[in-house]
Amino acid sequence: MKIISKIANLAKLTFILFLLNSTLIFSQTDELNLDTINLEACDGDGDGYASFDLTPISDMIQNNNPDLSLVIKFYNSQNDAESDTNSIPTTVTNQTMNIHTIWVRIEKPNGYNEFTNFNLLVSQTYIGLDTIISQCQLTITEDDYPALESDCYSFTSVSTTDSLVFTDLENYTITWTFTDSENNTVDVEQQIKIVEDTTPPTIEGYISDHELLLNENCQTFMSDYITLNLLNSFDNCSDVTITQSPASGEIITENTNVTLTFKDENNNENTYSFLINVVDQNDPIIENCLENRSVIISGNTHILEDYTTENIGITECSPYTITQTPAPHTELETGIHTISLKVEDEYGNSNTCSFQLNVSNDLSSEEFDLNSFIIYPNPTSDFISLQNIGKISSLEIFDISGKLVLEQNQNFTEKINVSSLEKEIYFINIKSKNKTLQQKLIIE
Predict the structure, then answer these.
(1) How many Cα atoms occupy the beta-carbon half-sphere of 158 within 13 Å?
(2) What is the pLDDT of residue 46?
(3) Triad 178, 183, 184: Cα angle to 5°
(4) pLDDT at residue number 412
(5) Are 427 and 418 in contact (CB under 8 A)?
(6) Which DSSP category does 237 fall into?
(7) How many CB atoms lie under 10 A from the CB of residue 39?
(8) Which pLDDT score is estimated for 352?
(9) What pLDDT sits at residue 375?
(10) Would you state the pLDDT for residue 397?
(11) Are 255 and 293 in a shared domain?
């Protein structure tokens, strides 16, 4: 038990009370009211009550005033102290929980009486234990035993006779016994609540976005990322099942998101996703490169056609472009020219095929007689007429910049409407088999 003293406030000066280093000294000439002197004791059982020994108060007052023969009495109320009735012994239990005021009657030899009071303060032995809430189950080991905070005791050990394994979804109560170095014990209850599992599995590990190569059929097969064990999962309550989407072995032909789903027995789930980028390392396949061709012209140069639109039988996994060399609409002089068609996909894989184009103004070929095709009138403003149309496979008209402005590949008639063309000079190509006749056409 300890004494807490506070400096007195002086009121009516007939006695003077000096509070010096917890020492009370009276003189014969002054009268005063004292501030409270507090006694503090520990609450051994946590009910808010404790036993106090009041003799340290009376001894302190008397021993520090040896020249005075004082009579010191204690009371539960100010009225009792002033009327000197119902005095209480020096060993007392507080009557109100945690704090109780005691009144002191001090009788001096000269017949004067002084009255003051102090408080009995009950300190809590310990702070209660928090409720433990655990999902699905709980096992408490010695490493998990609680510690008890106390203002009065220093506990050295803790024990319990209760089971510390909890598997059912319900509430439990554990009684812990705390013991200090002097074998004082305190029993404290702790609540345990086992609740339903709502926590998804945790995932550890890493799978980065990565590439898979397409085969010659423009396909690849999904790997089994579950058995690769690149990811580990842990759950607080149960085993974890893992599923993969798309599943292992599935055929993929394009960039694909892969998701691994981790699910516990209570259907709590967590997911991990990454991206597979498919990569094509196969060169395009050209199955039908164009055959060698001949062009018979009436002038000195030929405007090269755009052969990139023709079907050359391309097999390719990814988007591609076709580049022609020389470029379409290039003016070619008479002679044999190599025309190359380069097919290149978006990954840089490429393949090239070539054919020969013979540009000639030799009109003596038996296969291609210029005189067998007659275009008239020329110049014209609305229609042109053709003779011997049975031998024609296609007809194309280009402007002087090389732009294709009119094309006809079937259903040829003797009259072709050109009234939509602007007034200028054009080139008309008439194809028959692998030969081309090119002439100027004037629209006026």
Answers:
(1) 20
(2) 66
(3) 65
(4) 66
(5) no
(6) S
(7) 24
(8) 94
(9) 76
(10) 84
(11) no
Strand partners, 99: 121
Residue 405 lies in a domain: yes
CA atoms within 13 A of residue 102's CA, in its CB half-sphere? 28
Instruction: Please give the structure tokens belonging to residue 203.
Output: 């995932």
- CA-to-CA dists, residue 265 to 36, 239, 240, angstroms: 65, 7, 7
Domain residues for 291? 285-360
| The residue count for the chain | 444
Identify the pLDDT of residue 369: 52
Asked if 322 contacts 350 with a C-beta cutoff of 8 angstroms, the reply is no
- Cα 6 to Cα 200: distance, rounded to the nearest angstrom: 59
From CA 5, how far away is CA 273, in angstroms rounded? Answer: 69
Residue 269 identity (one-letter amino acid)? E
For the chain, residues with pLDDT lower than 70 are 1-37, 44-46, 124-126, 151, 362-374, 387-391, 410-414, 433-434
Residue 45: the pLDDT is 65
Q: Which helix (H) or strand (E) holds 203?
A: strand 202-205
Chain mean position to CA 343: 43
Q: Do both 327 and 389 map to the same domain?
A: no
Number of domains in the chain: 5
Considering only CA atoms, which of 115, 127, 129 is closest in space to residue 160?
129
Clarify whether residues 52 and 165 are in a common domain: no
Report d(CA 71, CA 50) in Å as an integer: 26
Spatial contact of 395 and 431, defined as CB atoms under 8 Å apart: yes
Selection from 31, 33, 116 nearest residue 72 by Cα: 116
CA 127 to chain centre: 39
> Which pLDDT value is given to residue 14?
24
